[in-house]
Design brief:
The chain is of the alpha+beta class. It contains two helices and eight strands; from the N terminus they run H-H-E-E-E-E-E-E-E-E.
């Protein structure tokens, strides 16, 4: 009796497997009817391409934007906090911050581990000057961010709650928030 049940189950499984092979799902794409294919799209019209000569390197064409602040090597980050800036303490800024620098989002980490005369810090995924961040310190009402040579790369001030705003020495806007 046991052998007949096993044989019956094996035969049923084989028939079921063979029946599944007859499905249209398993046919190669090239053998399926073309009626199920989507209709081709109509091409979009193209406008003619405009051409003009570029100015020589170092010269700007009329109507272009001026150089970015700090492009000539001068530092533009103010050493004085703006009026109404809140107080900042080292213990109040320690931790992980979401960072926005000129439209890019990244992370900044501030620790109390000693790094020269400052504390150790770093960034993840930040562009430009903030990619070189190695240290930080609080002086008065400002958070100062340093590179590995000890040069100031950004200054930030409390703008209320868990948010700091400022700029890099080249003039890029920086915001930290939690």
């Amino acid at each position: 009796m046991e052998k007949s049940r096993t044989g019956l189950l094996v035969a049923a499984a084989a028939l079921l497997a063979l029946g599944g092979c007859q499905s249209e799902r398993f046919q190669p794409l090239y053998s399926r009817p073309l009626a199920s294919a989507p209709a081709p799209l109509t091409p979009a019209p193209t406008d003619p391409v405009e051409q003009q000569q570029l100015p020589p390197p170092g010269q700007t064409a009329e109507g272009e934007f001026p150089d970015a602040p700090g492009a000539d090597g001068t530092q533009v980050a103010s050493a004085e906090p703006p009026a109404g800036a809140g107080d900042i303490t080292k213990s109040g800024v320690v931790g992980n911050w979401k960072t926005n620098i000129s439209g890019s989002t990244c992370q900044m980490f501030l620790t109390l581990t000693k790094y020269g005369n400052a504390s150790r810090g770093g960034t993840r995924g930040c562009p430009g000057e903030l990619a070189n961040m190695r240290g930080w310190d609080v002086q008065g009402k400002q958070l100062i961010v340093y590179d590995d040579s000890g040069n100031t790369i950004a200054r930030l001030y409390s703008s209320g709650g868990e948010k700091l705003d400022g700029q890099t020495v080249s003039g890029q806007a920086v915001s930290l928030y939690r």
